[in-house]
Design goal:
single chain, 186 residues, mainly alpha, mannosyltransferase activity, TMTC_O-mannosyltransferase, TPR repeat, TPR-like_helical_dom_sf, TPR_rpt
Amino acid sequence: GIYHRLGDIFARLNQWSEAERFQRAALEAQPDHIAAHLSYGTMLARNSSRTSEAEQWFRRALRLAPNDASVHHHYAEFLSSQRRTEEAFQYRVKAAELAPEDYALVMAAASSLRLHDRKLEAERWYRQAVKLRPQEARAHTNLGAILHLLGRTQEAASSYREALRLQPDDLTTLSNLAKLGVPAIS
């Protein structure tokens, strides 16, 4: 409610003690208010001496709302900020599984899987991204890149060509296509 909104406003103004006071009030008024848990955890995480306290709030949010994609996403962001990328990517994937229609979460899961050398799983999520936003050149470029890494040259070339059709002068896509050693036009 109102305490949570006030807490967010004070946080945006960098008035941390006031922000904390209102976030605590929000949590006392509504102990199961998920957004307040996430805001408070995010706010505490800004202070390196309070990261373990911040993590407790993210974990509470997970317990209260285990099927809320945004909770998994925010916890993944926190874990990434703590350089705990191995744990973070699992929460990114869980967020995408819980919200497979959310393009941003799907792309975050795919990119995270790619970085962890989980290429086949990354391909699945990049395909989902293309399905969600077929007019988004970047989605086709990313799918092409993972197919390229998987050694599926013709499929990669096809994805790159579709990306170029949507965004003809994209240097990343042109460069990737050149690395494949295939012509830009089939």
